[in-house]
Structures are given as C-alpha cells and as structure tokens.
Write a structure and sequence with these properties.
binds magnesium ion; 3 domains; formyl-coa transferase, domain 3; binds adenosine-5'-triphosphate; alpha+beta; 23 strands; Ribosomal Protein S5, domain 2; eight-stranded mixed beta sheet; single chain
Length: 588
C-alpha cells in the first residue's frame, strides 16, 4: 500500500515557518534585522499583549517599491544575496529570504512601505497564506510591518505562547542586544502604553551601555581591544574584581551580528579566571570583526550561531584583549577594597620567612596569596571538596569554646584560632551565610516586617529588569517589597522589609530584579533570599570591631553549612598547625 505522499503546499509552509518563528521575540528579531539591513536610523517597536496581539516595527530605512513589496513575501526572495558564492561573504543580517514569508504564513500581516521614488507608497494586507489587498497609500520613506494574532491559524502553536508579560522579557532582551549592536540607531520599545526602551542615537558603545544599564555598570567596565592580521576584537568588559553574580550580561557580536557562541564564551571565561572573585562572572560587550570568509553564519535558521574557521584565533583575541585591559585596569583598581588589597599590600611571598608561604600551597610561586588563591580551597583547608561542616567545632559546644577571634586581616578576613588550627574567614561570605539562614527562617514563617515609606524613593529600571518586575511582582510582595509603577520605567518603592536601611533596600531590589529572569520559580525564591543576604552583608574591605567579629564567627558556626556561602563560595580556609610548623621548619 502506498503510504508516502507529498504534503499540501500550505501545510509544508506552516512547518517551515515554525523553524523561523517560534514566539513573538523571533518576529521582532526578523523585522528589526530587516530594518537594520535597510539602513534605518530610527527603529520603533510596539507590542500589545507581549506581541501576541500585535507586533509593529516601524523604520525609516530604504523602503521598497511596489514590485519588491509584492515579491518580499515569496519564500527564498531576497535582495541581499544572489549567487552561491555570496554565501561565502554575508555582510547583511538577513540573507535567507525566508523571514517575511514565514511570518506572513502564521499571522495577519500589514506591510506599509515607500522607497522615496514615485509619489505613492504601497500597503499590502495578508492573512496567513492569503493576499487580502494591495493599496496605494501616502507614506513617508521607510517600512512599517504590523503582525497581528501570531499563530492564529496554528492553534497548537499559539497554546504554547506564555503570558504577555513573559513574552515581553525576551523581546526586551533582544532589543537591548540589537541596540548595543548599533549605538548610532535610535531604538524604542513600547509595550501597551509604556515605553520600556528609549535609546536616542549616540556615538559610542559606552554611551549605549549607559542608556540601557545605567552608570554603575559603565563604571565597572574597561575598554578592551586586540588585533591580529585583519581580525579585530573590541568592546567593553568588566574591570578586575568587578563583574556580577550571574552570566546575564554577556553580549557577543560577529561582524555586527549578535551571536551565541561557545568559543567566545569559553574564551571569555578563561580570560577572567583569576581576575574575578570565584563565582563572579564578567560583564562583556565584545565585537569581533573578521573577514567574512572566516566565519559561516548559515548554521541555523535563526542565524544566532556561527562557525569560525579558525577558532584558535578567536580564542587568542579574547584572551589578549581582556588580559591587556586587566593589567591596565589593575593598576587603577589597586586601591580598591576587597581581595585586591591583599595583592597590593606588603609584598608577601617575595622574601624573608614569608617566602615559605609557598610551602603552604597558596600558589605555585607564593603569588597566589591574592584574591583567587586565598579563596581556593586547598586540602587540608576547608572547602566544598573537603570534609564539610563536620570538620568545624561542634555547634552544640558552648560559645566560649568556639573559635577565638585573633583579629582582622586586610579588612576582609577574620583570623581566628580553633583548637590547634588557624581559621581565615571571609567576612562577607560568612555574614552572607548567617543572614541567608535568618532570612530563610523569616520567610518560612512569613514574618517579614514591613516598613512603609511616606515619600517612596523612585527607581529607574533597565528594560529587562522592568520586565522581570512584572513577572515577579507577586514573589517580591511576599518578600516584603511593594512596588508601584509610575509610568515609563520608573517605579516607586512603597514598602520594603524592615531589616534593611532604605538605601540598602533600593540596591537590594535592583539586585533581585537582576537575578529574577529565566529561572524556575522554586529556584527563584531561594536565589532572591540569597541575593538579599549578599547585598545586606558586610563588604570586603570594611574594618570590623572585635565584638562584631566574635558575634559573626559564633553565628556562622550555628548555621547549617558554615563552609559555603549561599552562592557556593567557600567561607573558611583552615590551616592546620602541622602545616604551619612544617612551613617554619619546626618539628611539631
Ligand atoms: N524593513 C525593510 N525595509 C526594506 N526592505 C525590506 C524590509 N524588510 C524586508 N525587505 C526586503 O524584503 C526582502 C525579504 O525579506 P526577508 O526578511 O523575508 O528576507 P531576508 O532579510 O532577505 O532574509 P532572511 O530570511 O534571512 O531574513 C529583503 O531581502 C528586503 O529586500
Ligand atoms: Mg530578513
């Protein structure tokens, strides 16, 4: 019996469309890329209900004449390449001639366009596969595409769309990315009546980052650049000792195209090993220019992945750019508090009896006494790999027999004696652990004390944070934060948990929103509490009175896991007496 038959044309087209158009953000991406390819200087994106009801992208680019406008919905129709050889050197964002065909196949679409020749523009209305009308219109030069009721004719697909506010998050993130890639272009994203992104054209990447992420982020970034032959990498990346607790701010562009790339990511991580504290990730905005033949962009329908011919070259460029930037950055940051202070302090490990420190395995040459080396758990020190909380003085022992605080080192570490051993305790990580467990208990009992503010401070949010807020308003409320929208991206902080100072509460809120995106709900609550603990904890570099240190150490060993902070960083390094004895050439 004959079982195989050709699919009807329209079914085949819907299947193909699904490869390009997955959700509202894919439509926005394709339309914005078309606008950029058309040389637009001003791109305005409007959504209703997270794009499910309407996605409208308006540009002032080259536009199309009547003939092209009629052709642009045909599959494999493009003005961007024409021969096979062209695939070897793609300079535009689009080239497959598929996007408009795919979007039109699964929505009700209206295109308005004018290329400035003749005296009339063109309006084309379509509904799924059907052409509804072609009309003469008066229209300024440029193109506007309206996409309504995405997947109206594919109910199975439409069911998979999330709530409007959840679909908005990825769109805001994409527009942020596109805006970073083209600082000279004006971008605006409007959801309903609220403008979530508004970026007038600027001259530099740094100004664009400022527009999108604010001053604090810009202050933590250094310029990076490296060149090799015709390839060049440049951009901005975290200063040494800066960075953040997550990987959410890492943007890569290859020949102007935003990409997700394993090689670039791996190179970035490697470049920052030892420059940032353990558990911190760099912020990065990296632009690679490379001859078109050196990179294949035709890997995936969404064009977000690329393949490099010479991956080693790419790796080297990232390592060099960051490495050189960091060595410049370090001299500036030397005065900064935190682990860096240890590095900048007296020349530990260079000469004299301290040189023996290398015997203590701080690092291969004793140089590791700075930041990373101090954190790294080395057996027999405490760390995630070592014995765990059980190695610590029993928590049920009376406090007086617990560790005895000897003093503070580098304004960052508490040095204590526990029996025969020496403990070096990271004051920030320790406090974070203590607060985390307290906060978790408060949260479990739903006992957050709330403080209402008569004159609520107004916070200005980055677009993705604003989207995160919409999505997490309920959770934040339970954690004691009541926030009210003030229009635009301004929000008033009406109430906050009465365990913080007002100024802290603001910073904490911003930290929470940073943290919010893209995690499963169970994980999110825990992470948020960890963030609250982190932001409220004493910082590295803060001098502490002895009583405070004693209290902190006592509380630390009452927690369930004194060896790790809630983000997984080690809290304590334990140095056993025999190791010290041996280092000093004394027989125990
Ligand atoms: N905003 C726009 N302004 C001017 N011309 C446009 C615009 N959008 C689309 N076009 C024209 O329509 C053609 C088809 O667009 P479409 O997005 O379907 O394909 P593409 O951009 O060539 O390739 P891809 O499928 O990779 O995006 C484009 O090649 C371009 O000539
Ligand atoms: Mg396109």
């Amino acid at each position: 019996m004959k079982k195989i038959h050709l699919l009807p044309e329209d079914v085949a087209r819907k299947i193909a469309a699904g490869e390009v158009v997955e959700r509202p953000v894919s439509v926005v991406k394709e339309l914005v890329e078309n606008a950029l390819d058309a040389g637009a200087a001003d791109i305005r994106i409007e959504l209703a209900d997270g794009g499910k009801r309407l996605i409208k992208v308006q540009d002032d680019g080259a536009g199309m004449d009547r003939e092209d406008a009629a052709l642009c919905f045909r599959r494999h129709s493009t003005s961007k390449i024409s021969r096979e050889e062209d695939l070897e050197k793609i300079a535009t964002l689009g080239f497959r001639g598929e996007a408009l065909a795919s979007i039109a196949a699964v929505s009700r679409l209206t295109l308005r366009t004018f290329d400035g020749t003749g005296d009339r523009g063109t309006m084309i209305e379509r509904e799924g596969e059907r052409l509804v009308a072609v009309t003469d219109i008066a229209f300024p030069r440029g193109t506007t595409v309206e996409v309504r009721d995405l997947f109206f004719n594919l109910p199975a697909r439409r069911k998979f769309l999330r709530s409007g506010s959840s679909e908005l998050g990825p769109v805001a993130k994409y527009v942020t990315q596109a805006a970073l890639g083209a600082p000279g272009v004006r971008f605006s994203l409007v959801h309903g009546t609220r403008e979530t992104i508004a970026c007038p054209p600027v001259a530099t990447l740094r100004e664009r980052v400022f527009q999108l992420f604010g001053k604090k982020m810009v202050d933590g970034l250094m310029d990076v650049a490296a060149e090799e032959g015709p390839a060049r990498l440049e951009g901005l990346a975290s200063l040494p000792l800066a960075g953040r607790g997550d990987k959410s701010v890492q943007y890569f562009f290859v020949n102007g195209r935003p990409v997700k790339d394993r090689i670039l990511l791996a190179a970035l991580n490697q470049a920052y090993a030892g420059i940032l504290e353990r558990g911190r990730s760099p912020e990065a905005f990296l632009f690679l220019r490379i001859p078109y033949e050196e990179v294949d962009v035709n890997v995936h329908p969404a064009k977000a992945e690329v393949r490099f011919k010479e991956t080693q070259l790419v790796f080297r460029l990232v390592l060099r750019a960051v490495g050189e930037g960091a060595s410049r950055g370090r001299t500036i940051k030397e005065v900064a508090p935190g682990p860096g202070q240890a590095a900048a302090g007296p020349k530990v490990g260079e000469s004299g009896p301290f040189y023996q420190a290398s015997a203590l395995k701080f690092g291969p040459d004793g140089a590791g006494v700075s930041g990373e080396g101090f954190h790294r758990p080395v057996s027999p020190f405490m760390g995630p790999a070592a014995g765990g909380a059980g190695d610590f003085p029993r928590t049920d022992a009376p406090a007086s027999s617990g560790p005895v605080v000897l003093g503070q080192y580098a304004n960052t570490y508490i040095v204590a004696a526990a029996g025969d051993d020496l403990l070096v305790i990271d004051q920030h990580n320790a406090h974070e652990r203590v607060l985390f467990e307290k906060f978790r208990e408060i949260d479990r009992l739903k006992l957050w004390p709330r403080k209402a503010l008569l004159i609520p401070p107004v916070v200005e949010l980055a677009p993705s944070a604003a989207a995160g807020l919409d999505e997490n308003a309920g959770l934040l409320e339970e954690l004691g934060f009541r926030i009210e929208a003030m229009g635009g991206r301004s929000y008033a902080l009406k109430e906050y948990p009465d365990v913080f100072k007002e100024e802290e509460a603001r910073t904490i809120l911003l930290g929470l929103l940073d943290e919010a995106g893209g995690r499963p709900a169970e994980d999110r609550r825990e992470r948020m509490i960890a963030t609250m603990a982190c932001k409220a904890a004493v910082k590295a570099g803060e001098p502490l009175a002895r009583e405070k240190m004693a209290y902190l150490v006592e509380e630390l060993f009452k927690t369930s896991q004194p060896a790790l902070c809630p983000h997984g960083r080690p809290v304590v390094v334990r140095i056993e007496k025999p190791v010290i004895d041996k280092g000093l050439g004394r027989k125990a």
